[in-house]
Specification:
The chain has 208 residues and is α/β, with parallel strands linked by helices. The protein is built from 3 helices and 24 strands.
Length: 208
Amino acid sequence: MLIEHQGKRPRIHPTAWVAPTATVSGDVTIGRDTRVLFGAVITSDGGSVVIGDECIVMETAVLRGTARHPLNVGNRVLMGPRAYLTGCTVEDDVFIATGSTIFNGALLKTRSTVRIHGVVHIKTVIPEDETVPIGWVAVGDPALIRPPKDHDEIWAVQEKLNFPKEVFGIDRPAKGRSALETVAPRYVKALGRHRDDVIVSPDPDDDQ
């Protein structure tokens, strides 16, 4: 399904293919021979999404661009089932395996790999040819790559990256307060703009 959001429609190369049950919304560009499989969601929520040539977006993957962090994917990138990418940059020939999460401001350089359920945190840079192992967490620049059991070591880097400030533009809340006091109303308002969306085509092939 192709959706016009805030006056912007997806731009899909004639040789690309989007499955009928995938959703592509707003300011999204999909390149030559790219394939978007069943149940995938590619959405521009205030920021653009650009996907290059010969990419594969597999079933139920979610790709999101935001106002603070557009999403840019290079050529020949495979994004596995249930992968989640938001506001990051992915260079050419990168493999992102099933269930992996790539956060805002991250950079995956050429030929890097994130294996099953790997996590690349905000503003983290994965060098060329580097691998994040199965279930491990990468954080910082240069990237610290550790198993989740090393939480204290990961948090020592992650805390300084300041997720609330980077992603939501707010300071970390004081003890006894929640960031959601500010974030939830803001999200509700922003996501409410989808009420005015227009379905361009229930079948992407109709719009080619």
